Automatic annotation (TrEMBL):
Belongs to the Dps family. It comes from the Bacteria. Residues 18-155 form the Ferritin/DPS domain. This is DNA starvation/stationary phase protection protein. It comes from Woeseia oceani. GO terms for molecular function: ferric iron binding; oxidoreductase activity, acting on metal ions. InterPro entries: DPS_DNA-bd (IPR002177), DPS_DNA-bd_CS (IPR023188), Ferritin-like (IPR012347), Ferritin-like_SF (IPR009078), Ferritin_DPS_dom (IPR008331).
């Protein structure tokens, strides 16, 4: 059945394409955060173990919201590692990172997701796609705040 929500097919495809990048970056950051949760060691273990659990739990909910928005626009959501690796700009963890390096990488990942969300705003705004704009605004707020909190852990 044809999607008739007041947004043209061309605009829906453009928005969904931007959201697919956001989904890939968010999922990659989720995986990286979960990896660090499992593998953190050292004096900051308890703090980082609990903090990363909060973060990956929030990211797990976010990937669902982003994918469902793509589906509401009438397009398929990417859902494989192969698709995500083509779309994502968040880098995967290499392994063996110190706790401070994990924090640095998570800051970079959070900020990358903010930039990906920000890049999607234009397409959504041009189509007057308020639900997507709302989703993007919420995602940027979460990632900016999380990046700030993580950065604060690195300052003396």
């Amino acid at each position: 059945m044809r999607v008739n929500i007041g947004i043209s097919e061309e605009s829906r495809q453009a928005i969904a394409g931007q959201l697919a990048k956001l989904l890939a970056d968010t999922y990659t950051l989720y995986l990286k955060t979960h990896n660090f949760h499992w593998n953190v060691t050292g004096p900051q273990f308890n703090t980082l173990h609990l903090m990363t659990e909060e973060q990956y739990t929030e990211l797990a909910l976010a990937v669902d919201q982003i994918a469902e928005r793509i589906r509401a626009l009438g397009l398929p959501a990417p859902g494989s590692y192969a698709e995500f690796s083509k779309l994502a700009t968040v880098e995967e963890a290499k392994g063996g990172e110190s706790a401070d390096e994990m924090i640095r990488q998570l800051v970079i990942g959070q900020e990358t997701v903010v930039r990906t969300a920000r890049a999607a705003v234009t397409a959504a705004d041009e189509a007057s796609d308020e639900p997507t704009l709302d989703l993007l605004t919420q995602r940027m707020q979460v990632h900016e705040k999380t990046a700030w909190m993580l950065r604060s852990m690195l300052e003396d």
